[in-house]
Amino acid sequence: MKNQKRNDSFPTLHTPLTEVDKLILRSHEPVLDMLNNLLGDDCEVVLHSLENLQQSVVHIVNSHLTGRSIGAPITSTALNMLKKMHQEQIFVTQAYFTHSKSGQKMRSITQAIRGENARIIGLICVNLNLDTPLQDFMSFLLNPNDHKKYGQGTDENHEKELFAENMDDLFHHTIEKVIAKVSNDPTISANNKNKSIITALYQQGLFELKGATKAIADLLGISTHTVYLHLRNCADK
């Protein structure tokens, strides 16, 4: 009896991706970096493409937790989550527990990424290491100096965020705050007050709001032409 040739390839389901699908997947890569900036080095975040399950990992942060790298295959847990998503028509799982190769307990969650025709083309898996001492984790979250490595500076460089109920509240609160700050700054001459106010509002993105130019001109008692003049100077810098 002749020996049969062994086939080492593992047949898996695959989802051919369109160019639009691939763009959608790549657009999620910054989400992984965002979660890394927020939660630190003890949270692994993985982006899977379903085009080739044998090499599904296309982006990963904090891979030291599981030892994986780009090109690694999908896990049995991720496959199970994918099956559940299809069966239950859900796109975000409940949190569940997994373990790393070294035995660390992790709290995990999986989100589906949908491409053209609303089909699932990828997954984002988040694995938070629960074996990290709570004191160390809280120290990272509460210490503003830890954010310097991400180019964010410290709390002193950030204003408190306003959670406005509507756009009018956001608009007027921001303008009033900037006007008060500039008005109380003795280093800014009276002739430069309006210019400084408009520059500050431009830097905060307020002119992205519809009708902002006229409203600010009315509040400052100047023409919209003057506002546009200052805005051109801002854009040229």
From TrEMBL:
It comes from the Bacteria. Residues 25-133 form the YheO-like domain. Residues 175-232 form the Transcriptional regulator DauR-like HTH domain. InterPro entries: DauR-like (IPR039446), DauR-like_HTH (IPR039445), YheO (IPR013559). This is Uncharacterized protein.
